[in-house]
Structures are given as C-alpha cells and as structure tokens.
Amino acid sequence: MLVERREFLRRSVVGLALPGVSAILASCDPESPDGNVDAAPRTSTADARSLAATPPMGWNSWNVYGPDIDEGRILAIADAMVDTGMRDVGWEYVMLDDGWQRTRGSRFLRDLEHDPDKFPRGIGFLADAVHERGLKLGIYSGPGVETCAGYTGSGGHEREDAVLFASWGVDHLKYDSCCWPGKGSPDVADLHRTMADALRATGRDIVLHVCHCGWDDVWTWAREVGGHHWRIGQDITDDFDLPGHREGYYFDVLDMIDRGVGLEEYSGPGGWNDYDMLVVNLRGEGALVGDGATREEYRTHFSMWSILASPLILGSDVTRMDDYTNETLTNIEVIELNQDPLGIQAARVRKDGDLEVFAKPLENGDQGVALLNRGLAEAEIGLEWRDLGVDWDAALARDLWAHRDLGSFGEGFATSVGPHEATMLRLSPS
Ligand code: GLA
Known about the structure:
It is a single chain. By secondary structure, the chain is of the alpha/beta class. The protein contains 11 helices and 17 strands. The strands form 3 sheets. It has an 8-stranded parallel β-sheet with strand order 8-7-6-5-4-3-2-9. Strands 10-11-12-17-14-15 form a 6-stranded antiparallel β-sheet, covered by helices on one side. Helix 5 (158-168) packs across helix 6 (188-202) and helix 9 (295-307) runs parallel beside helix 11 (332-339). The longest helix is centred in the middle third of the chain and has 15 residues, at 188-202. Alpha-D-galactopyranose is lined by residues 62, 97-98, 147-149, 176, 178, 235.
C-alpha cells in the first residue's frame, strides 16, 4: 500500500538501497545491444498519424486461453470490456491470437481458413459483432508457413491473406515470425515489410504488430518496414520477479522493464516499443508460464507499462475481475500517461539498487513520474526536479492512484513506497 509519508527532499540520494536484494541483471540477449543501430526517427508519417498515434489498447486471447478460443469466449470478453467500463476509458481492440485457423501444418498444402467449429458464423460475423460493441477486431498470423503453435501461416500468401483479413473487417494483425528464420536473418525485415505493404494495399486501416521475439534489434527497423508496434522481448511470464527467467526464454515483469531501458528513442507516435501483453489478473491460471503475482504487483506492472508508453494489451479473463483489478485497469489518470499525444516512453532518471525513478514529459508541460520499488521492503524513493531536465522552482504533485493532490514542493519530492509497488505522480510546474 502507499504510505503517505512524504517530505521535501533535503538530500540528493534517491533512497536507501536494501541489503541482500540482488542488483539488476543485464539483458539476456547479448546480440541485442541497447545501442544505436540505424535509429528509426520518431517522427510520424501521414499513415502513422492516423494509425497507432498513441499506443494501441486492447485485449488478446493468448495469455489466458492459448489456442482454445471460440466465438462465445471472444464475444463474452467483448461484452465484459463494455460492461466493466474498459471500453469507455480507451480499451479498444479484441485480438484473436493463434488458434483461430482451421488447420495445422504447412501453407504449401493448405488454405488459410477459420475453424468452423470454433467460429461457426465466421470471422466476418465476429468482426461485425465486435464493431457493434464499439470495439475493433484483431487477428493473428505469421510469415512462416506455420505459426508458432503449428497452425497454417501466411508465408508466400501475404497479399491473398491481407485481402481476406480486410474483407472480414479486421483492424489489427499480430504478425508473428516465431523467432523464424532465426537470429540475424537478413530476410526477416523483408518478410514483415511484405505483409505491411499487402495490408496497406487493401486500403483498410489495419494496425500491424511486428512480432519477432525482440530479436535482431527489431526496434531499429520495424517502424520503417510498416509496423506500428514491436515486441522488445521474448514472451512475458505471469510473474513479477522470478530470478532466472531471462537466462532462458521468458521475461518476467521486471525483466521486461529492464529490457526497455535505452530504447526510448525508438518509440513514439505511429510505432511503439511493446513490452508484451499485460498479465494483470492472470493469477497463475492462464496458458502462460508463471505462478501469478499479487494484485498490487499487477497494479505496478500496469503502471509501468503505462508510463513506458507500451501498447496496453490485456491477456486475462475480463469476465472475472474483482473491484481492485477493475479499478487498476480503468484508472484514467494512469492511462492518460500512456495515451499522452507526445508519445514519449519514460526514461529511467534515477537508480539506486532496487529503487528507481522513471519520468516522461507530457504534452501540456507536466511530467509523469513512477517511483518504482523493486525490492522486498518498504523504502523511501525521491527525485529532484532537476532530474527531469526542468528548471522548476516548485511543482504541484498529484498521486494518480490516490487521486489526490499532494501539495506544492520546492526542489523535489520523496515518499515511502511499498515492496514491488510504484507510486505514480503527475507533476505540474507551479
Ligand atoms: C508466440 C508469441 C505469443 C503467442 C504465441 C502463439 O509464442 O510470442 O505471444 O502469440 O506465439 O502461438
């Protein structure tokens, strides 16, 4: 819980490092340096301005259901997005992930069709039903002849499939190379470009997720080939902090936050660093690896994805949400940090062991701030305005979870933050 003890900062340390808590590890992928490789400009193209001008928000079926999706489940989620108030605060897409297809196996041998048992009235019907609810429909495929779960892919049939998706009224495509054709392949950007061009040729606005395991510095080229967001890491797990994950394939919440440090310049209107789908409320019961997290840890996860300008794509069962989770996912003040039109990914401006401060400038001149305690004991975290690169004499601070103005502060602000929690602030010069 937030501890509402606060004081003017009289010292310039961020807080107290906790003994016995491990330091941040380096990224698991030695072949993906955080450096500047052909930095894609953050400026938008005309296309980018209209598509994904702010990070896409929605729901995706994979984390909770895996391939076990059907029309009933998807429409129940769409209804719940309306009933819970999620739609009205910006949650927009309902995305089918892998498993909607009729057949498994190579595209060389099979057509791409929907599974008539799972979707008896077809995907076009589903798109209409989703649209009637004021939402948009996403679908899934990939450049391989098979998808990650072994279903028929789009390899070699990109134009045909783009036309099919557009004819159904699809609004978003997750195009997943499943780490194929492997790290360092010169072809991978072209494979995604081929689909991006095919989608654009349909004339329908379809947001494209270039999904490539966070490999090959995908953030340096995905925008240029026509992508609107791109995963920066391998698959997320349903864990806040489980040491050892990133040495293998999976990233927990803290691993993913670390992965994005240094990638800020690549994210912005029209193209976003994607921290992977939210595991909020999955509770260890979904289709993902992981044992679940506490509801406070899930709130921290949501807060950080928001300030980092990641797409917010929920992967849990919206029909089973308690009040606390509903309050988490519909906190408009936190969502506003995510959807701010400047589109800046928060940078880590202070770090002292497990205590970190992330900040981002907002369009109206305010700053969004997260005081993140990665550790297992409550600790004081603070910042000074000069950390933000501003020359403010004083600033008003607002607590975005308490929905409360905290007052005016002279040089900086500090507060006590619970274990695995993040205090979220909006600061305005005064
Ligand atoms: C990969 C992706 C997941 C999901 C599955 C579907 O593992 O990273 O998000 O789309 O494929 O098979």
